[in-house]
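Could you show me some protein's one-letter sequence and the numbers that encode its backbone in two labelled lines?

___
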Amino acid sequence: MPVNLSIKNVPDETAEELRKRAAKNHRSLQGELMAILEEAAGKSTPMSPAEFLDGLRTLGLRTPAESRAMVREDRDAR
């Protein structure tokens, strides 16, 4: 059965960095925190090909040129 966890008194700077990390990974803050916890617990599993394709479809990518443009835009924004 899933358990609800709570972390109190998280510094504003830390919370903001987690939000940025979540956005960079195209996840919600909750999703990013879950990914961090799963990795720390050694429970992360590799993405299946179907999950990978679903992720590409979510991003709306259809060609390599579109992904290159997205990477370039991300790099230029830094």
Q: What stands out?
A: The mean pLDDT is 88. The chain has two domains: 10-45, 47-78. The two ends are 41 Å apart (CA to CA).
